[in-house]
Amino acid sequence: MMADGRLLGRVALYGVAWLTLAFILMPLVFVTWLAFFAQEIPSFPPEGYSLKWFGAIAGNRNFVTGFTTSLQVAVAATLIGLLIAVPASLILARRQFAGSAVLNQFLLLPLVVPGVVMGTSIYVFQIETEIATGLPILGSLGGLVAGHTLLVIPWTVRLVTASLTGLDRAAEEAAQSLGANQWTTFFRVTLPAIRPGVVAGALFGFVTSFGNLEMSLFLVGPGRVTLPIAILQYLEWKIDPTVAAVSVLQILLIAVAMIITDRYVKLARVV
Amino acid sequence: MAAVSSRPVGEPGNLTAAGLLVPATIFVAIGLMVPIAILFRYSLNAFVPGQLMVDALTIDNYVKFFTDPFYLQVLWRTVRVAVACTVFCLLFGFPLAYVLARTQSPYKNLLVMAIVLPLFVGNAVRAAGWMVAFGSKGFVNSTLMGMGVISQPIEIMYTEMAVVIGIIAVNLPFMVLTLQSVIEGIDRNVEEAAFSLGAPPMTMATRVLFPLALPGILAGVILTFILAMNAYATPVLLGGPKFQTMGPLVFSTFAQQNNWPFGGAVSFILMTATLILTIASSLLIRRRYA
Asked: Rounded CA gap, B284 and B282, in Å?
């Protein structure tokens, strides 16, 4: 009787769990399905299947330039973010000083400030800076990169500090006692050891930047779109297999990034 | 030689340490905190049509929001949608998080990837998926009509239900991953102990598992609630132009009406409302299970 209750409980548990997983994946399944439809109108059942829509992407200027812009911005923001966040993470993970915990939380802040609020704030900031300096910032590629760098910093800090906490100091001490100087020790011992964290931080930062919509909406200038904005604007007008095909490309790109990350750090441990 | 080894490796001098911390700190301070402060200052300015923003020190923008039934309704709709989404995320997310945390399967990493992938794919793409399903000739309507359940397509697109479903799907991964990490830390033996003392599964869950998982439940609820309150792409695409929530309202006030002071005020009201309701909900959950 008791065992029956537990069995029933398990069946219900697994049933709900699998349904939930299916629910999470459902939008991706539908959008991928539509990308292969033969007809343009998303009506079911499809009249046939075709690959032509992937070719149609190239004919849409917004998607092409959006993809290029997103790629440029994400790469630049990731590099700058790593350059300033990795050194900070090294200190934060290894030193206890007054306010170190607060500082750590502070650098993670861009993860919790809502996208729309970040977008509006940075928008008015860039306007004020433009007025003060006379430099064209708002709507420029640099302004967009600066905003996106804010998205990369918290991921890098989070993943690099996590990979440092488990690191044994003995290897570095051994290197130094064998005569290596600080720089050699850093590049030959510390950096290889935290490489998984750096790679994961870079990929998460890249993916977050590439997929960002809310903040970018405020920061793009006339004639410049990122891929998520191009997709949103297209969808506000209509849904058809072309936009679905672009979406499939984005899904693939991110899936590849995830699989690479997983080779360095087990995803289950870092998200 | 002695000077080098007197200092532990990987631990640079104080000056170097400060030098390594400063760039990131300044970047976040100037890139995020200063902008938020400026936005707040803007929200106290006045808006004169034709002249755009005029320097002032007034709370008119906030008064305007809280005295206009239209804006109050937008806020109320946003809160209602966010609460519904958070409750459903917790209800459906917990079983999946539990299975994920306790599984011995060699494919666990694949499972995690299946949950993380949609999270990074972006809200517009996922909304597109639901548009395929919900349209008048979409999957749901075609299937139901094919089975003879309905004779006319039912309206799903541009309803509150579509938005709620969309946001639940967007936020579920966050809830599942947050809960999973906490459940993994709970010793399996306490569950077995409850069972061996004769507790049915639901009793075990409510009396043992939920109280122990409380920190994760709190973190997950807070995260998904914040995200639901601030949703943008999902309400725009699945709710349509008439379904106004706070996120789209901020954008249209700013970018389409160019009313920066009022847009700033709406941003701050959204942030404050999110904060207050987050604190209230965490107090409520603590009281329930403490």
From this structure: 5
Rg of chain A over CA atoms, in angstroms?
23
Residues from chain A that touch B174, judged by Cβ atoms under 8 A, are: none
Nearest residue of B to residue A269 by CA position?
B181
For the segment B61-78, what is each residue's pLDDT rounded down to a tens digit? 999 999 999 999 999 999
Place of tokens 């966040």: A85
A contact test, residue of B20, B30, B121 with most A CBs within 10 A: B121
Establish, for the pair of chains A and B, how many residue pairs have beta carbons separated by less than 8 Å: 301
Residue B284 class from Cβ within 10 Å (0-12 exposed, 13-18 middle, 19+ buried)?
A: exposed
Task: Please report, to the nearest 10 degrees, the dihedral formed by the alpha carbons of residues B169, B170, B172, B175 taken in order.
Answer: -170
- At residue B230's C-alpha, the angle toward residues B215 and B56, to 5°, is 120
> What would the pLDDT profile of A61-120 be if each residue is shown by its tens digit?
899 999 999 999 999 999 999 999 999 998 888 877 888 888 888 898 888 788 889 999
Tell me the nearest-neighbour CA distance from A57 into chain B, angstroms: 15
Give the ipTM: 0.87
Q: Give, for B118, the enclosing helix (H) or strand (E).
A: helix B108-121
Indicate the SS3 state at residue A164. Answer: helix
Residue of A nearest to B124 (CA): A232
